[in-house]
Structures are given as C-alpha cells and as structure tokens.
Amino acid sequence: MYNRRKFIKMSAAGASLAALSTSKIARAATMAPFAGVPVVISTWDFGIVANKEAWKTLEKGGRALDAVEAGVRIPEADMNNHTVGRAGYPDRDGHVSLDACIMDEFGNCGSVAAIEHIAHPISVARLVMEKTPHVMLVGEGATQFAVEQGFKKENLLTPESEKAWKEWLKTAKYSPVMNIENKQHAPGNQYNHDTIGMLAIDVKGNISGACTTSGMAFKMHGRVGDSPLIGAGLYVDNEVGGATSTGVGEEVIRNVGSFLVVELMRQGYSPEAACKEAVNRIIKKKPDTAKNIQVGFLAINKKGEYGAYAIQKGFSFAVCNAEKQDLLIPGKSFY
Ligand code: SD4
To answer: Where, by residue number, does substrate bind (predicted)?
Structure first.
C-alpha cells in the first residue's frame, strides 16, 4: 500500500507536491464517504496534479465541464507520461493514436477515437460535442476536424516513445496484458497503461467528466478501447452521478462499465459498492481472464460521495476539494 512519502517520491510531479496538502492517505474502503462540493476526483497518481488544475476552475465557481477539460490536459501534455496524450506510446505500426471523451451535466457528450497528430484529444472531443451534431469522430476524420478547428497537426512520436516501440518490435509480442500494478512505473515496462478519467462537481452541483488515453501500447492499428466510448469509459447523469474506468478496455466495453456503475448508484448503491459490483460482473463472466488483468472504476454521486474499486491491487485515485488533495487506494477484489 502507498504511504505518503512513497507517493510523493513516485509522482511525476513530486517536487510540486510538497506544496500540496496530502493530508491523508487512506483506503477508500474504510473511510466515510465525503459529502460536499465542489470536488474533483481522478484516476491514478497523476490525478493529483490534474485535479489541482481542475480545482483552479472549481474554486472560482467555474463549471465542472471546464474544470475536467483543463484538468486532463495536464497529463495529456506531460512528456513523461506515455499513457495519455502527446507522449503516448504508439500502436504496433508506430502511429500515436489517441482516444478521449467528455460529458456534461446536460447529457451532452463528445468523443474522438484513434485520432492522430493532435496533442489534446479531450479538447477536440469537447468541440465535437459543442460544434457538431455528432457524438464521435474517428481516425482521419477526427484529425481533419481538429485541424479545421485550429488545432496544430504535430508529430507526436517522441524519441523516447520511438525507442520503446523499436525495442518492442524486436519481439513484437502482441500481449495486451495491462496494469499489473506491481510492474507499473518500472523502467522499461512498456505495457504501462494508465488512462486519466476525471469527474467533477461544481458549486452549482453540476457534474461533468472527461477521459483520455493513448490506450494499449503497441496495440493493433485502429484498436479502440473503452476510454472514448460514452457508457464504457465514462458516463455522467446529472441526477445521479458519474463514473469512469481504467484498465483493459475490452472488458469494460463488454460490460458497459461506467453506465452500469451510474445505474447502480441510481438504484441506491454507494459509489464504491457500485464500482465493486461492476468489477464483480467482469470477474464473474470471465474469471480466468480477470486473474491477469486490471480494471478499475471510479465514481461520484450527486452528494459528492465518491468511491472506487479495482480487480487488482495497485489502483489509486486522487481527490481534491477545498480541504484536501489526497491520493487514495480503493478497495480491490481478492484475486
Ligand atoms: C484502454 N482503458 O485503451 C484503456 C487503457 C487504460 O489504464 O485505461 N489503462 O483500454
């Protein structure tokens, strides 16, 4: 389990974290649910710096939608992050292709999948939502739309990512094993896949969410995971709450995971219980597969209570409100 010192050391933003009030590291499973808004939560340890950015909007009374977009742009821009945005690892043919989606309090949503050459897919997803009659654009069409909207077309394959890809090509083993967390952040671990999913509630009590990723490293060209799929990687219902996911997208898609979590909360499940039930359905359907993969869900309800649950240990999420910036370790199944 993380402790505070270890977390500060391992974070990409370790230096700046000293300034944050990491007041408590706790197992979400044992803590009382927090109620109160505004609040922002997001997946993995890099969520803490992303939340900090989102918080700048929330604390000024801004809209949750603006907060989540601004927040997830931080890992998208992080050159040390090979699982989200600009420096993401490429597919097996060397293309960096990104997936993202966003959803607001009115049920509006936008998404891009397998978009190339654009560093901030979340902002393109938002424009799909706001400027087109559609929900989702993919591949070249998504890139074309982004360029029309003024986004810069860039080569996103960084020298480091290219080196990792060339190393992978030596064996070209197509083994989409992801998120076995004890191997995460290890040097040379090319199968490190951390999506950022973020959920926020603003001062008006409105909920929005965003999710962005480069997906599975060295994936098949054209492969799309759960992250840009509304209902799978992200779902928001302003009457109930929001949910997002990380891990092996195929299993999340098969179970329409984030929608399921929100519907369970509608039935009265707490955020953590809803995440746990969604995880258990994945395990129940494919117990052998589930032993070797990670899937984690993160959820928040209308009151600002939050929770998470993952198949494997090692999943973390970050919470930020007026009082704290915490990294939390959710409950896990007993694999
Ligand atoms: C995907 N769900 O593309 C993403 C990857 C991920 O933590 O979330 N990794 O399947």
So the answer is: 223-226, 246-249
